[in-house]
Fold Putative NBD/HSP70 family sugar kinase.
Amino acid sequence: MKEDVSTVGAASPGELLRLLRDGVPRTRSELTAVTGLARSTVRARLDALLDAGLVSDGGSEASTGGRPAGRFVFNARARVVLAAEVGATHATIAVTDLAGTPLAEGRFEQDIAEGPDVVLPRLVAAWRSLLEDADLDSMRVAGVGIGLPGPVEHSTGRPNNPPIMPGWDGYDVPGRIGAEFGVPVLVDNEVNLMALGEHTKCFPEAEHLIVIKVATGIGSGFISNGMLHRGAVGAAGDLGHILAPHAGDVPCRCGNTGCLEAVASGSAIAAALRAKGVEAHTSADVVALVRAGNLEAGQAVRQAGRNIGEVLAACVSMFNPSLIVVGGTVALAGEMLLAGVREAIYRRSLPLATGNLRIVPSQAGDDAGVLGAAAMVVQHVLSPDVVDRQLA
Amino acid sequence: MKEDVSTVGAASPGELLRLLRDGVPRTRSELTAVTGLARSTVRARLDALLDAGLVSDGGSEASTGGRPAGRFVFNARARVVLAAEVGATHATIAVTDLAGTPLAEGRFEQDIAEGPDVVLPRLVAAWRSLLEDADLDSMRVAGVGIGLPGPVEHSTGRPNNPPIMPGWDGYDVPGRIGAEFGVPVLVDNEVNLMALGEHTKCFPEAEHLIVIKVATGIGSGFISNGMLHRGAVGAAGDLGHILAPHAGDVPCRCGNTGCLEAVASGSAIAAALRAKGVEAHTSADVVALVRAGNLEAGQAVRQAGRNIGEVLAACVSMFNPSLIVVGGTVALAGEMLLAGVREAIYRRSLPLATGNLRIVPSQAGDDAGVLGAAAMVVQHVLSPDVVDRQLA
C-alpha cells in the first residue's frame, strides 16, 4: 500500500521539523517517544532532514554509561531568504536566515511607476550584489518574499487593480522572479507585511492587532487570531478610503469624497498647510515642520490623528484588538499624531474595548515590511506540506 | 521515558479521530500506512477510541483471500451536545449529535433580566425535558454551549460588562452549568455564535464573512480565515455603537451620540415611526407594517438599511469579506432592508472589494445561534488535545 504522508502531518519529515523548530535539541529516542512513530520511521525522516541540511547534529547527550546519543536541532542557517519591501518611491531589501533574522540589508530610491520590467530586474540585481557583498552567494535560496504598495491577490502573487502602480495590474511577479532563482516567490501588500513584521518580530503575544501606515497614503494590515487577515481578494485593510466622519466633501483620488486619505494622509496635510501659506509638499516636509515647532503643522498633524482615530474607533468596535501600531512617515512626527489618534479612539469606543488597548508607535520602523516579507516566506517554506514535498 | 502525547498531535488518539472525522472507513493497515505510526501504537489508539465509543466498527473490507479486515469510522452518535441561544426575551435550545446535527429542538419566551439564578436553572430543566421527550436521556452528554446577548470572555465563559443583562456581569456560567452535567461548558456572545452557525452549516466555503443581526439592538459576528474572530476581550463585532455617518446627535443608551443602533435598530425605527404618528413599538411591529405595505415603515426600514450599509462599508474596506449575512427580526422585512444595505455599501466601498461580495439574508434563520453553539462545543470536545486528555 502506498504511504500518503501528506494526509496526516505529524508523521512526516515536515512535522518532525516543526517540532524541532522550538530550538530544543533532541535524541532519536526522545523523538520516537514524543511522536509515537516507529523507530525506523524516525530514523528515515531524520536522515532526510539531515541530508537536506535542515536539521543538524547538535552534539551528544551527557553519557549515562552507554554509547552517547546524538541530539538533533533545527538549522536556521541551512538556506537564505530574499525579502523586499517596495514602496512608491523606495525599496528595502534583505537577506535573512530561516528564522527571519537579517544577515544583510539594503535600501534605495526608485519609482514604482517605472513598472515591473524595470523594478523587478533591479530588485534581482540588488539581491545578487547583497548576497555577494555579504559572502552569502554560495548559500541556497529557500524563497523570495516581496511587498508591493497596492492590493495583491496573494494566491497568485499578482497585483489586483493597484491604483498607484501603472503597468503592474495582473503582472505575474512570481513567474518573473521565480525564473531567476527557481524557488517559491510570495507577494503581498506591503502594509500587510508591515503587520506581519511587527507581529512576528516585536509583538508575538498580540493575537489581534492592527498596524496602520500614515504616509503619502494611508493603509493598514490586520492580524486576527495570530494570522494575517488578507480578505477575499487581498483588499483588506483599506483604511484610507473609509468615510472620515468629519471630512466633509473633500474629493479623493479614488473618485469618492470624504475618504480618510483625502484629509489625513501626508499629502493631504501638506496641501492643507499650503492653503494656509505654509510651505509643505511631502510627508517629510510636514514632519520637519512639526519637529521645528511650527504651530500650524503641529495642529494639522494632531487633527489628522483625530480623523484617523475616528475611523480606527470603528475598527476597534468591530475587531476589539489588543494593540494598534502606528507607523509610516507621518508617524515620525511623534506624539502629536498619536495623541490625536488616542483622543478620538477613546472618545468614540466602548470602554470595554479600550480598557486594555495599547496604541503605540511602530517598533520595527522602516524594517517592518521587509521583516514581514521574510516571515511570510519562512512560514511557507518551513510549513510541513512544503518541506514534505521538497523531500519527497 | 515518559511519553508526552500532547506535544505532537498526529501520533495521539485525538489526531487519529480527527483523521477519521472525514467519514471514510479505514482498516488498521490503512491507518498504519497513513499515519506512519507503529502498528502496535495504532492498535492501542484505536482500542481507546473504540472503548470510548467515538469510533465504531464500520464493517469488513471485501475479502481478498485472507482474514477480513475490520474498518473503522467516526461515530457521531457517541454523545450528545446541549446547545442554547439566549436572547433578551427568548431562548432557543437544542440537543445535537457530535456532527452538530439537531436531534431535538425547543424555544420559549423568557427575560434575560431575571438574572442567571433564574435563567440558567430554566435552561437546565428545558434541556432535561428535551432529552427525555426525545428518548435521549440515556445518552452521554459531551458538552454544553450557550450564547448570551452581550460580550463574553470566552476563555472563562463569564459575561463581560453586558449592558442589557443585570446580574450577569462576571457570573460563572460554566461553573453553574458544569455542576449539573459534569462536562465542559462553553459560552459566547450570541451574535458570534450566529456567525459560527451560518458559517459551519450554510456557508462553509466563505473564509471571511460578517453576520449582522438587526433586531432590538444591532450586533455582528465575524469569521476571519475560517475562524471566529472574538477579539482581545470578546468584544469584537460591536457594530451597534459605531458612529453612523449621517446619524447626527441622536443619543444612544451607551452614553454616546450618533451610534448606529440609535438610528437603525428595530427600536429606533419604531421610535421614528411613532414620532410620525405611526403606531409601532417593537421590531415585530415594524416588520408587520412593512409587510402590510405601510409606506412610512418601508421608507424607515430602507433608510435604516442605508445607515447600516454606511457602517458596513467601512467594514468591507477593512475586512474585504466575500459574504455579508443579514439576520435578526428587522431583516424579516425582507428586500427593503437589504436594498438599503446594498445601496450604501456599493456607493461607499472600492470596486475591488465589492466585485465578488455577496450580501444575503440569513440562511439558518432563528437556528443560527443554537447551531453555532453546538458547533462551538463540537470543535472543542473533538479537538485532539481534549480527546487525548479524556482518554488519558
About this structure: Confidence is low (pLDDT under 50) at residues 1-9 of chain A.
